[in-house]
Amino acid sequence: MSFPSTICIKSISTRSTRAIAQDRNAGLAPLLVVGTAGTVDTGAVDDLASLAAIAAREKLWFHVDGAIGALAILAPDIAPRLAGIEQADSIALDFHKWGQVPYDAGFILVRDGTLHRDMFASPAAYLRRETRGLAAGALWPCDFGPDLSRGFRALKTWFTLKVYGTEALGAMISRTCELARYLEIKIATAAQVHAGRLEHRARHDVCRARHAVAGAARA
Fold it and tell me: What's the pTM?
């Protein structure tokens, strides 16, 4: 179940708990709670700490969709907005967004590595593991996802981190958020000068605006 972004956190907590109870009473088995760490279109961030508490109380998996926003944890001034992300059971994130890595470079972090491997590892004969020599006991990438063959995404990500470092990437993230706030100020100034009404809001590195002209018919 999802809720509009305008609903307050207390209401979301109450309605989430009620929805979970209703599902269980109906014979269903709720699986997980998903929080968003920065939406692509608006930059909105859920109260991850509250969602983590719900997941822990109800004994559900807590996943965070941090495709664009999770890397804000590298920026000291932005990171507090992601409080609670450290309690996630899994986090999805893309380095080809804020991480400055060429497309594609999607990653997932899973807290329980053993559970992660047990979910995807295959005992197929053609995937026989070596028990002796240098390759003995080696972990295979195909043991951690559905793809048996895939590109070396980690290499370009490693190079980016090696060359720039996390501090420089964090500073870049802070700068893009600063630019979004600057645009918000410029829009607010324009609203005082021009006829009509400008609705605006800057979140993370995203600033959305809508110009409503007095007397104009809605499209």
Answer: 0.82
Going by DSSP bridges, is the β-strand pair 206-212/106-110 parallel, antiparallel, or unpaired?
unpaired
Cis status, amide bond into 104, omega within 30 of 0: yes
Residues 6+ apart with CB under 8 A from 205: 43, 98, 173, 176, 177, 179, 180
Render 197-213 in DSSP notation, one character per residue: EEEEEEETTEEEEEEE-
Q: CB of 95 within 8 A of CB of 108?
A: no
- Which residue type sits at 19? A
Higher pLDDT, 21 or 195: 21
31-165: CATH topology: Aspartate Aminotransferase; domain 2 (3.40.640)
Contact present, 203 and 45 (Cβ < 8 Å): yes
Joined together, the tokens standing for residue 7 give 């609903």
For 74, other C-beta atoms within 10 Å of its C-beta total: 20
pLDDT tens digit string along 105-164?
Answer: 999 999 999 999 999 888 788 877 778 888 787 788 888 888 888 888 899 999 999 999
Query: Which residue's structure tokens are 């269980």?
Result: 24
To 10 degrees, the CA torsion angle through 188, 189, 194, 196? Answer: 20
For residue 17, the 8-state DSSP code is H
Q: Residue 3 is encoded by which pair of tokens?
A: 């809720």
Residue 156 corresponds to which tokens in the numbers above? 């370009």
